[in-house]
Amino acid sequence: MLRSLLPSRAVSSRAWAAVSSTRAASTYDFIVVGAGAGGAVVASRLSEDSAAKVLLLEAGPPAPPESYIPAACAHLQGTPVDWARSTPGGGIGQGLIDGKVKLPSGRMLGGSTAINYMAYVRGNPKDYDSWASAGANGWSWKEVLPYFKKSEGFIPGKVPAIDRDAHGFDGPWAVSFRDEQLDGVSTFVAAAQEQGYKLKDYNSDARAELDASGRGVVSPHQFTIRDGKRCSTGTAFLEPHMGARPNLTVSCQALAQRVLLEGKRAVGVEYVDAAGQAHEVRATKEVVVACGTYATPGLLLRSGVGPAKELAAAGVETKLDLPAVGKNLTDHMLLLIPVSGIGTPLKELVSECTPEGDGFKRYMETGKGLAATSCYEASAFYSSGLHPVSGTQDGQISFGATAYDPHLWQNCMGYADFNEENFRMDALFNPEVPSGTIVATLNRPLSRGEVRLAGSDVDVIHNYLADEADRRMYVAICKEAMRILDQPSFSNEMEVVIPKALSKRFGNDLQSDALWEAWIRSFATTIYHPVSTCAIGQVVDAECKVFHMDGLRVADGSVFPEPISGNTQAACAMIGEKVADMMASQHGLTLA
Ligand SMILES: Cc1cc2nc3c(=O)[nH]c(=O)nc-3n(C[C@H](O)[C@H](O)[C@H](O)COP(=O)(O)OP(=O)(O)OC[C@H]3O[C@@H](n4cnc5c(N)ncnc54)[C@H](O)[C@@H]3O)c2cc1C
């Protein structure tokens, strides 16, 4: 049954055969390390020129079948296709197991785009303009928009209208709206409009608009989903070509250990295969590192590129003293605020999303229903006015169309002492009562952390809320979310479910700074958007070439000069497109 729903698996059986049967040769023109949002795009685009011999090394396997089912996204966390790192909570995480924030990221073809919540959000045009004005030449909104559009295969749907000029329709990466709105989504959008937000396409120029109170646009999410199935960058950019392009070799379960350097030139990669056997492969033209924000600095550090003192302390010979490798780490945070009386009852979630349920059978036959979404459904964009750069849209207030199930709260979010004593389990998990979540996100934090070498992987230290301004912005964003819930469209029967332990200490006033600060410090966690550990201007130049090195580039979230005001997968794929284009110009390749 699973196979009939997931034709891409059947179609791509040739591709899976190619993965397992192809042994990497010893020399390529280009070696790309990491098959996620950035790396899958780079490898796919470079191999459009049949003269370019490309090797893509990916530590994980092909994506498992569950990855194609959108609602299974949370359940992939903590499985072998998740790197499953964690970080000390810093200023947050007091209510999490061991005070630690779990940091999932995808370890498979498609990388984190095969485990993520699939919202397709590009950020604010002004984010990219400020990248460019800070020295990232060529990265202004006007200059990056063509690369967003190049990837995108927008599938026009019923809701709502989009700005057609802002979208691409011929690219391989499916972007769509849900045809069937889930309970509560249109209520959230209507309430945000009553509060002053404008229903507009958040991936267009309109995203830059703000009213005098800092309210911008609101819209149901656009998703990287096609016909009810996740479309990761692996699905979009690799599957159609694996086994079909003789010049593209994709090696799965190939864990890169270090980039091989001769003097100041990258000449290849050493990796370990699934059997633990070490191999060296050579690149005659370039090595592109695209292992994601945590692992890319890890690979550079293991290769001897990074802060000399730290490398010496870790016993790694310094090949290039580059102090900023691994620094400047930043991330968005989320706070899940459960609401009852609106959204989807747990009983429906169980019926629609578990293999025994009738609703799930319908999904398997038609690709429709609750299982065809992550339930992370709509966003409104806000400026608290407290970010030092005036007009920065530091807040994203989203609607989750269900309160999910205990698995999400306990295993994915890592809530400690998850019991009736501390939480309103009756309201959260009453199977008959509609429930949802408001997701309050701090998008433009000022706190910075770092990634350090630790054995064969890295230690991640996020320093969440280290900067006092972050706390103030975040409290203001949560209070704004409550003002949206106060609008007439939300019925009086809707109730915000405050964790019992917090309401006992801080009361139930949803405009209380003390309550929100405590809630944030206890239960805020990552929304999985780490960036900037090899930032343009600090580790790489505007062509994403590692400073003072030849033949070595980075193409993933680690090169963001600054965070953006929105989810990150679209921008990471855009970086892949732009890097591939710059490489093609340099090496005289003809891309399709
Ligand atoms: C749970 C979750 C939910 C998210 N939800 C959303 C969302 O709804 N919308 C959105 O826009 N963004 C979302 N994101 C973020 C988005 O998916 C990431 O920003 C984006 O995928 C990052 O792209 P990347 O290329 O930097 O890294 P990745 O996509 O993580 O790819 C890195 C790849 O490198 C591989 N790799 C790492 N080390 C090695 C090595 N040594 N050797 C070989 N291969 C290696 C990894 O296995 C991985 O495949 C989410 C992320 C997560 C984890």
Q: What name goes with the CATH superfamily of the largest domain?
A: FAD/NAD(P)-binding domain
Q: Can you identify the CATH class of the largest domain?
A: Alpha Beta
Radius of gyration: 23 Å
Residue windows where pLDDT falls under 50 for at least 5 positions: 1-12
Beta-sheet strand percentage?
A: 15-25%
How many domain regions?
Answer: 2
Give the count of helical stretches. 18
Ligand list: flavin-adenine dinucleotide
**CATH-scheme architecture of the largest domain:** 3-Layer(bba) Sandwich
Q: What is the average per-residue confidence, as pLDDT, rounded to a whole number?
A: 94
Principal-axes shape call:
globular
Domain Glucose-methanol-choline oxidoreductase N-terminal: 106-129, 292-306
Keywords: FAD, Flavoprotein
Protein name: 4-pyridoxate dehydrogenase (4-pyridoxic acid dehydrogenase) (4-PADH)
InterPro entries: FAD/NAD-bd_sf, GMC_OxRdtase, GMC_OxRdtase_N, GMC_OxRtase_C
